[in-house]
Amino acid sequence: MLDGLQVTTGCTFGNQKLTLKNSPGITAEFQLPNKKQVTVSVNQTTFDKLKKKLLLEKVSNHEIQELAQLIASIHEEDLFVIRKE
User: Fold this and answer.
1) What pLDDT score was predicted for residue 52?
2) How far apart are CA 54 and CA 44, in angstroms?
3) Paired strand residues for 38
4) CA 24, CA 27: separation in Å to the nearest integer?
5) CA distance linking residue 33 with residue 73, whole number of Å
6) Most distant CA pair in the chain: distance in Å?
7) How remote is the C-alpha of 13 from its chain's centroid?
8) How many CB atoms lie within 10 A of CB 1?
9) pLDDT band at 74, cuts 50/70/90?
10) Three-state helix/strand/coil letters over the chain
11) What is the pLDDT of residues 17-60, one digit of tens each?
């Protein structure tokens, strides 16, 4: 996730526009130029379902590819929780 954020936003650890904080979930907070803040979190219910499928004892490469395609096709409203402040 961090690599994707750095590539898509141009914010990096090197230019000090990206910081990493410990948190219980997977969340990214963005400060917009107008000083408003947007928080994007992974939907925990969806994440838990996907993780359960991935952590089965014997997951084949084919099943992993199917899971990746499923993730890519999930509507963003089901995959993320977006809050604007």
Assistant:
1) 85
2) 15
3) 30, 84
4) 9
5) 31
6) 49
7) 18
8) 9
9) very high
10) CHHHHHHHHCCCCCCCCCCCCCCCCCEEEEECCCCCEEEEEECHHHHHHHHHHHCCCCCCHHHHHHHHHHHHHCCHHHHEEEEEC
11) 888 888 888 898 888 889 899 999 999 999 898 888 888 767 78
Q: Is 39 within 8 Å of 83 (Cβ atoms)?
A: yes
Instruction: Say which residue the tokens 């999930």 belong to.
Output: 74
Measure Cα distances from 72 to 17, 48, 50, 65, 68 in Å: 28, 16, 12, 11, 6
Q: pLDDT band for position 69 (50/70/90)? A: very high
Tokens at 35, concatenated: 């000083």
pLDDT band at 80 (very low <50, low <70, confident <90, very high): very high
pLDDT of residue 64: 85
